[in-house]
Amino acid sequence: xxxxxxxxxxxxxxxxxxxxxxxxxxxxxxxxxxxxxxxxxxxxxxxxxxxxxxxxxxxxxxxxxxxxxxxxxxxxxxxxxxxxxxxxxxxxxxxxxxxxxxxxxxxxxxxxxxxxxxxxxxxxxxxxxxxxxxxxxxxxxxxxxxxxxxxxxxxxxxxxxxxxxxxxxxxxxxxxxxxxxxxxxxxxxxxxxxxxxxxxxxxxxxxxxxxxxxxxxxxxxxxxxxxxxxxxxxxxxxxxxxxxxxxxxxxxxxxxxxxxxxxxxxxxxxxxxxxxxxxxxxxxxxxxxxxxxxxxxxxxxxxxxxxxxxxxxxxxxxxxxxxxxxxxxxxxxxxxxxxxxxxxxxxxxxxxxxxxxxxxxxxxxxxxxxxxxxxxxxxxxxxxxxxxxxxxxxxxxxxxxxxxxxxxxxxxxxxxxxxxxxxxxxxxxxxxxxxxxxxxxxxxxxxxxxxxxxxxxxxxxxxxxxxxxxxxxxxxxxxxxxxxxxxxxxxxxxxxxxxxxxxxxxxxxxxxxxx
Length: 515
Ligand code: SF4
Ligand code: SF4
Fold this sequence. Notes:
By secondary structure, this protein is an alpha/beta fold.
């Protein structure tokens, strides 16, 4: 289709599949299926009555995934055997399996309900009681969910009491939720001995009693409540790990499927075209899955046109150089390499590539061209070359006035520190640089999942290589800093420049030039 404003070389349209695969069997998956009603939807794990736009696969599970965003091929396995589906995007919505925490001693006929369902119940004025943090079993998820559900009820003018033992939780944003709940009038009561709390039936109400054994003579605390919501044992199960493995999606340290950016892009993952929502990505309050589903529908809407425009430049693999070692595919954080095993060819998918350059950095055959400022030639006599990740070290360097001693620094941006390769460093040394510093993100803060670890491995290998050539291994160093710590970054660089003893007299340029 000719587009008037599009000039040759600006980019191309790529045909894409508008169907979406939803994987999950709980309310978050239902929310996704409902929000994606403009798309054809394949629903694996379907529990509700599907709409006309939905093909339900209630008894199947995902076996294998091939392809990239816009053109996924997904193999399912079920009672009827195996089948392949084709879709443009995927939504992962596994549910947590919950049981009430057995540490709370509640009467069998008690109206106690799990905290994650509190805001769904028709609670009018209360008072309601939350019981949280009696033992180890509940885990972080339950505590965060309880706080958020309490907040939802408080916003509806319900009188809320929050009894808690040891929450043992440190979660991004938790402090804000806690403060907001306090501001809305939620009363927090710390229990030094949660097992001393008792709940008894009183007609249609529940009486909650507690005496603090640590304060001799303290009066009994007693109130009647319309509802008691008890903490749950709820953690990501093995299905989270299995989905992460199959779809090549990162997980966080608690086992949830990791968002690409919890504040800016919470429903995206490291893999373009694979989305997560609700409790699949972390503690979620009632209704959050619906908000996530709406955000995903916004992300997938352009696929309804059947084609997507991608601007040049994008990476290309030179088939004449490629040895089909698949190192690029193993390290790509986005799963963006199209691998054709029959023809033994590899290509970068412009629809899925994030432009991190990691594949070019690990390709020993230099089959992936990634031209950038790091490849320029020139004299670097006496300079300190800093190859800096443009999302951390480079931003730090740009945001601080550099002092006089830093006049010999040449800070070169890389899309990711994992892009650095041996040739780049040796070339800089051969051009006369005194030393090379690779500036990476802090540990586990890499925008591209594994770039900072890769950079560390490469610097270690380079040091060994320099040592084997009779050069000072200290001439290549790794520093880690974040973008918002420019003084720290400058201090680390200053330490290296002042303290490694590498002077212009021991550059070993001739040896480098021969390599
Ligand atoms: S790393 Fe390089 S040589 Fe190996 S498969 Fe990828 S492009 Fe080909
Ligand atoms: S540039 Fe990064 S995202 Fe793109 S193909 Fe290479 S490794 Fe994957």
